[in-house]
Amino acid sequence: MKLSALQQSYLGRRSNSFRSSGPLDSSSDGAFKSPAAVFWLVLHGLSCLISLLLGFRFSRLVFLLLSTSSTYTSPFHSPTELAKTLDIRSVIPADPVGNVPLPFPNKTATNSRVVVGRHGIRIRPWPHPNPVEVMKAHRIIERVQTEQRLQFGVKDPRKIIVVTPTYVRTFQSLHLTGVMHSLMLVPYDLVWIVVEAGGVSNETASLIAKSGLRIIHVGFSQRMPNSWDERHKLETKMRLRGLRIVREKILDGIVIFSDDSNMHSMELFDEIQNAKWFGAVSVGILANSANIDETVVEKRGEEENPRMPVQGPACNVSNMLAGWHTFNTLPFAGKSAVYIDDRATVLPRKLEWSGFVLNSRLLWKDGDKPEWMKDIDTLDGDIESPLDLVKDPSVVEPLGSCGRRVLLWWLRVEARADSKFPPRWIIDPPLEVTVPSKRTPWPDTPPELPSHKKPVIGIQEPIIKHTTKTRTSRSKRRSKRKHDETRTDRRTTGFDKTLQN
Amino acid sequence: MRKWFWGFLFIAFGFVCSIAAERNPRTERISGSAGDVLEDDPVGRLKVYVYELPSKYNKKILQKDPRCLSHMFAAEIYMHRFLLSSPVRTLNPEEADWFYTPIYATCDLTPTGLPLPFKSPRMVRSAIQLISSSWPYWNRTEGADHFFVVPHDFGACFHYQEEKAIERGILPILQRATLVQTFGQRNHVCLNEGSITIPPYAPPQKMQARQIPLDTPRSIFVYFRGLFYDVNNDPEGGYYARGARAAVWENFKNNPLFDISTEHPTTYYEDMQRAIFCLCPLGWAPWSPRLVEAVVFGCIPVIIADDIVLPFADAIPWEEIGVFVAEEDVPKLDTILTSIPPEVILRKQRLLANPSMKRAMLFPQPALPGDAFHQILNGLARKLPHQKSIYLKPGEKILNWTAGPVGDLKPW
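Above: the input entities. Below: the structure tokens describing the complete assembly.
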């Protein structure tokens, strides 16, 4: 603090008087130049010299032992305390000598336990924090933060009901782990409805069981098809299935659709608490834009406003819902992915489901709900977009400061349809060796590398290219084998050495 | 029929009560040993007469050094300004209950900005000689109905070193007057019975300008910034803060729950708002502006100063708001703080969140209702009516005008 710095330099000013203060000062103050005082002066000087030799001030020790000066009012400490300096790290018994009853004719007797003068610095022998206490402190911090959230955060937070369609595939672990961790961080009550295509499987169940959340895991009889169009349709049906569960169990809260490939921000969950009946947020669209036609992009850019990779509500000046902003798919026209295995861009739908939230009461059979909500039992066919759930799209509430804040991101990354992965990502039996460790005579192994049997995740073509490259380099090396032999020996020995180190 | 009427009245009353409670659900009313007095209005309960002293006692001193307006002893200047324009001021000394002497005794500053107390006793003495000769009110009671603002390190002992201050004691001619001071320690020579302890001056605008959103989570457990060893005056430690600050450092410098250091961060105020506990240990004197800062920023003050008397101790229940740790218990500070139940901590935070608590610690310009100026007046009003025994018979003298060190008797 600035003030403490000031204090520091201020006291620097008084260091002159301070160093010589103490009994000397008090005894020389006033008109007390008695021979006794002179004697004390001399004795003090002597003890100062001795202190220089010994290394600590023991003049006060001497004074205490000999007598107490009648002019000096401050009581002294016990000699044990005085003898201890910083170097001696021990617990000092805490009883300074107080309440010295000295006769003071002109001062009121001070019954203070607090003594002026030098005190020991108390240091406990075991300096490390007690782990139980550290945990208590963390619990206190959590409790204080919960209270802060209650007071200054969202008032009366409602339960969040998350509907996620999923199915077992290579990328499922990646996606579901992301969603799961986001949901575990949500500070509100949560129910997670996981609808799985192809029926309930142990794979998904074991993955989501690690979350500790309240989960309703249901299966959907159809399997996931291979074309994106079909997939979107099936996912819509799965979401409706999830909504039917909300209706059956009469869950009360806010329903949000979290596709397992999306990424959510924590502010999303705070923002959706503001939804009254049917809200919409802006979704960032991260379409993999490889292979789009660059010239087309530039031309468009000159004519219209720059495209934003965002889908969501658009407001007019008075912050009322004026329309919808959707992701411009024209640059991708004709080049989007149709099947899972296509290398082209995967495009989102016009309006993604994940950008909409609804009050669960809209789904209940009875109860007071606005008349613009369609009954979900009557919708069995294809629903193109979530706006088909309502009769009048203008009732949708724009959230996230009228769609200006993007609170979640859409991304679709999937592996090939035939890609394999170890069940539950546990490797059993052990994998084949791709790079042998030391002592395997490397140049003598046959040219075929056992890399084909490696579990391939993702696209296989680059892997094949890689193996051909090594094959050619190896063949080159084989011709120079004789020269290399000594070199490799040295290399392996060097390798050994590093391993031993 | 009548039963229903009373039932309805009862329900309506309960409804109104609950609404009133809803408006302030997260703060609690503060009532100290003097009762629920923080929001009392002193206007009409007392009258203060302000002596007209020559400007060499106040204005000229301030002109010589305007730094006096912003250091932590500035309360004496702002109190004078407040009283000049306050409704409690009276121009008729006959009807006054209290008499105020506007003298800026801490305004003799070193080049680095700290007050030198050496001339203060002579200044005060000369002022009192002036008022006792020009007005009859001093001699009437020998100062028992006069009050002085002495915000020095050790109050009216007028010295910055504790040993010298104890030795001097309170200035003999001020023994009967009421002293309004920042220093407070029980059973200490420099604190008279009946003195009013006030907080040190902290600039209110600076603190209000650095507020962060209230929903920023408090993530620091214990926070402190300041010296642990005063290397200029006490390098080995043991004198400064009676070894308490050094003990805090040695015991907790490696403890991750304790955010303590000697740095001067620019985010000091912001960090305090993110901390749950703020240490307020003694330094060379037991009081410090840290207490004011902790209260304003909602950080629970941990007071490590034996026998300290905190500001407005009869109006504010400090035991319920802060945590008191004895200096000998400093090595167990982490045990003490973690063993406080969370409900108690939340209650303390609610008490601190009470706006009247924060207002009572500040000296805003212009004065606001419930601020420290009004608390001082409340304290003075609580001491009324004066006992008959303070009025001396004509010719009677109690104070010894020649007591004290010889240097004090010289004219100023």
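Note for the figure: Chain A has 15 helices and twelve strands.
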